[in-house]
Structures are given as structure tokens and as C-alpha cells.
Amino acid sequence: MIRSSTLFLLVVVCACDVSAQARWVPATSGPEAVGGRGRHDDVKFATAETGWLVNTRGQIWRTDDAGDHWDLQLDTGARYAFRALAVIDPRNVFTGTVQTPGSVLFATSDGGDTWTDVTNRISGTKPVGICGMSVVNSRVAYGVGAFHGSATVIKTSNGGQTWTGRSVKPAAATLIDVHFFDELTGIAVGGTSESLRGNAVVIRTTDGGQTWTRVYESDKRSGTDGEWGWKISFPTPETGYVSIEYASNSDGHPARVLRTDDAGVTWTEIDVDGSVSRAGLQGIGFLDERTGWASGRGVTSITTDGGVTWSQLLDWAPEVRSSNDGTVTASPEGQLDGAVNRFIVVHDSLALAVGKRVYRWTGADAATAVLGTPVPEAFHLGEAYPNPSPGPVTLPFHLDRDADVRIEVIDALGRRWGPLLHERLPAGPHEFRWNPGAGTSAGAPAGLYFLLVDVGKSPEMKQVVLIR
Questions:
Q1: Which of 282, 369, 412, 455 is a plausible cystine mate for 379, CB 3.0–4.6 Å?
Q2: Containing structural domain, residue 452
Q3: Same structural domain for residues 264 and 218?
Q4: If 0-12 CB within 10 Å is exposed, 13-18 middle and 19+ buried, where does residue 194 land?
Q5: Do 363 and 390 fall within a single domain?
């Protein structure tokens, strides 16, 4: 098992001034993500050479040369949305899913040649999804989920042969990421509301997950519908960071991260000056106590002084071309591709990031091209109506410019009811219409549903109550 720190990176294409050459380069034959959310979701390594990546398109890939080349091991055709990885050793690997609550945990015991649904190994409270996982050693590992509710921690003490699930309510209502320092002490992040309308929280345990204490809760800022903790990065046992994501930001507050210098007992809020978006931050990853990235739905920022000052980074802005031998090259002005979802430090001279493609960082200077004027927000979202209702439900929205639009419908258990809208639309007014009595939504029971709207990498969510 390789101990890793993680990063969820998202950046925006815009006019820029170049101050240094990018140090992230695409893998020679890294897979390009298609379908699903158009990105890879997690990457973890067992050794300096061998690792895996997964995505919500239902794919699992493996590398045996430190991430430069990748082989497809499993393709479920989007039947399962793989979200998180726990790598025990080169043969035993686990992956968690979202949006398929009856099948939340898969495993391999032969290095990925075969994969099996092992959700039945979980006793106690079963999570509706697994968004983050943390491996302590060959015996002990944890998983948490889900981002949309039913805050649950699962734990194994025998290398994944059996798992036990436990609800953490009322300490948290949602859970997204987890980090354990040893078998007993760890933290998890999420929010106070299953509808993501509450505050961000950090919870901590010192008894192996038997009990959890809320050690931080955000004070939701004006113009923000809700906040939640998203990703965790601990470059040292004492110093760590957490990113805060939120829904809406009508008052234009800067993004925010948390820092601890006592292994998660207390936390300090840090504004990421220059990073302003509708959704705050998602990923965060640090190479050491001072150098790291905080990334959100539109802007990626870098600090080299532990968060005191920040600079915004140039998007990769690729000029991609393939040579006869298949090598992919890109413009040197930027870094990453604007949809990177996970970053890991494999060892002192190798890190990886996965988004639309796979990128490798081999220990060069962290400084890169600096961002120019940010692109303004691209859309305005109305209220779903009628609400409550038996359906159909209409959601109006307006695009200020042409944009990629993705809308999906999930219930409180994380099940996708469709239909899915995923296409590029022109500027102007639009409507999304959901008929819960037809097509893939036929048979949708009464209850709470979420319309998840993702426009130009900026998320919003509207609640709908379906009555029968």
C-alpha cells in the first residue's frame, strides 16, 4: 500500500499570462474519460509502479509502469458508477460506488483480473454509496458515504473479508471523504443536511469509529444555499487541509479551505483569495506543509506558503495531437485539463492526477502558468415547478453563453431515475422537464428527489417533493 494524499482539481479555460512552464504532462497512453461525468474519479497505488483508477462510467484501469500506460480491466457500461478506491496490496483492491445503493462495494483478490460485488460483506448499517476510502494497513481500512445523505462509516479489520457499517448521525448527515492516521484515530468530512442545504462539518474519532465528535462546523455565508466538506489532504501527521464546497455564491465570497496543525483537533478557516465561483472548492492536495493546490468548479489555485497567499493557475488549454507512436503531447502553457477529480502523491518524485485524462508530475517546481481574468458564471437557475406535485416537473434555466449542461435526477437513496440531459446548449432560456411517470422514471415512488444541475463545471441542486 502506498500512503497518499488526494486532490480533486477543476480549472477553467481563459485568457492568461504565462510565468512558468507547466510541470504536469499527460501519460503516454492514459485513457480518455468518456460518458458518465466525462472524467476519472479516483486513483490509488499499491507500489511505486502498480495502481488503479476508476470512474463513474463503470470502468476500472490498471497501470504497472507508474501511471504512464494503462490497461482496461473492467467495463460495466455505466451500470455501476465507481467513485472511490482502497488498495490493500497489489492483489487486493476495493472500489466503492454511488447511485447504485444495492451494490456499493466491489473487490478483486487477483490484482484486477476479476471483480466481484461484495456488498453482502457489509453488516450493520449499509451505506447508500461510498465516496471516500482510507487504508491504514493490510488489515484495517475505512470507507464513508454518501454525499447525498445517510452518513455511514464502514470498517474492516481483516483486510476486507468482512466490513461493519455504522451511522454517524447526529455528528454528520452526509459524508464525502475520510482520512485515518492509525487504526483508531481519524477524521471524516461532510455536511449537516442530507439535502446539502446545511453547514460543512469535520468529525473525528479516537476509538476506531465507534464514536464520532464534531470538531468543526462552518457558519454558512450570505448568498450560499449550503456548504459541505469535500476533500482531505494531510502532508504530515499533524498538518492537514480540507476543502469546502457550496451551492450558489450570489454574494461572490472567495473560496475557503480549513487547516489544522494538531491532527484535526482544531481547524482554522483560510480564504483562497482570487478564487470565486458558484461552488467553492472540491479537491485539495498538498505535497508538503507549504505547497499545495485548492481546486473548485472553475478555478485552481496554488499556494507555496501554507495558504497565506494564493495564485490562480492557467488551465491546460490543450493543443492535443497524437504522433504515429501514440504519444500525446500538449501545450506547455498550462497544466491539467479542467476536470481532474483526484490527485495522489505516490512518492517524493511522483504524483498523479486524473480527470479527462491521466497526468504525471515528476518532482519539478510546483509553480506554473498564472491565470488571467476569470470567466464569469455562465447560468441562472430558476425554481422547479409545480413543487410538490405528482409530476411532470419543469426546471427553467438561462445560459449567458453556450455551455455544456448536465442534469440528473436522484432520490434520497442515491438511485438515478433519469432522464439524463447531457449536451451542449446555446445561450438563452431553456427548460428541463421531468416526467416521473414515464420512461426510465416510471414507478418513481413518492418522496424527496434532487435535480442535480452541472453547467460549465458549476453545480446547483434543486429539491422536488413527489406526491402520489
A1: 455
A2: 379-466
A3: yes
A4: buried
A5: no
Contact between 300 and 280 (Cβ < 8 Å): no
Q: Render pLDDT for 72-130 as a digit per residue (tens, 0 to 9).
A: 999 998 899 999 999 999 999 999 999 888 999 999 999 999 999 999 999 999 999 99
Residues 349, 269 share a domain: yes
- Rounded CA gap, 417 and 245, in Å? 25
DSSP 361-381: E-S--S--PEE-SPPPP-EEE
pTM recorded for the entire structure? 0.79
Residues 100 and 235 in one domain: yes
Asked whether 143 and 127 are in contact (CB, 8 A), the reply is yes
Q: Are residues 48 and 96 in the same domain?
A: yes
Same-domain check for residues 161 and 234: yes
Helix then strand then coil, % of the chain, to nearest 5: 0, 45, 55
Domain final residue, candidates 351, 371, 391: 371
Q: Are 338 and 13 in contact (CB under 8 A)?
A: yes
Instruction: Tell me how far CA of residue 261 lies from CA of 200, 236, 306, 395, in angstroms.
Output: 19, 9, 11, 44
DSSP 33: P
CATH number at residue 459: 2.60.40.2550
Q: Are residues 386 and 449 in the same domain?
A: yes
Q: Based on the structure, what is the number of domains in the chain? A: 2
Best CA proximity match to 233, nearest among 264, 212, 204, 256? 264
239 closest CA partner among 279, 267, 211: 267
**215 torsion bin: left (phi>0), alpha (psi -120 to 50), beta (else):** alpha
Residue 131 near residue 152, CB atoms below 8 Å? no
- CA–CA dist 93, 369 (Å, integer): 37
pLDDT, tens digit, for every residue of 230-270?
999 999 999 999 999 888 887 888 889 999 999 999 999 99
Q: Last residue of some domain: 322, 355, 371?
A: 371
- 4 falls within a domain: no
User: Residue 220: exposed, middle, or buried by beta-carbon count in 10 A (0-12, 13-18, 19+)?
Assistant: middle
Residue 386 included in any domain: yes
Residues shown for the chain: 468
* 262-277 pLDDT, tens digit each: 999 999 999 988 887 7
